[in-house]
Amino acid sequence: TSVTSGKIQVNGVHLHYQQTGEGSHAVLLLPGMLGSGQTDFGPQLKSMNKQLFTIVAWDPRGYGKSIPPSRDFPPDFFERDAKDAVDLMQALKFKKFSLLGWSDGGITALIAAARYPALIHKLVIWGANASVTQEDVRIYNAIRDVSKWSEKVKKPLEELYGHEYLAKTCEAWVDGICHFAGKSDG
């Protein structure tokens, strides 16, 4: 089964997605910080069982091919991403689906499952935060300058975004995620 891609308007933006498989169990793949469906889930799009699953990988607004708009990080960006993800799956006519997310995608998946439990079948997450500590803030600030990243990590993202957009968006992400350190409720 081939991978198809498209864009669909959701919540005022055009979200890019890739879809493959013909199984009755729909699964949305949620990428991490700066990631896209292709960069974070290329192997899953290629190799997951396409008879059991219908797999959808998305690019959150401002990431991957869901540009424009440029990515921003208001205080509710995880909640916005959760609503976008759920509304994307509903626009694609999935009544119930599972979520597989890592890092920021894992946080987004947790919020989506908590806010829309009747729509979520199963949840698989890894590398997600429940809170941001001062130690996390130190670590995040250490990755703020993408020119210091390893070529292995930096190169595919620079190919996707260009250096300037990658650098600007990473800095904005660090500022956005670090604001959670001041919140006692995660």
From TrEMBL:
The keyword Hydrolase applies. Keywords: Hydrolase. This is BPHL hydrolase. One of its GO terms (molecular function) is serine hydrolase activity. InterPro entries: AB_hydrolase_1, AB_hydrolase_fold. It comes from the Eukaryota. Residues 26-140 form the AB hydrolase-1 domain. The keyword Transmembrane helix does not apply.
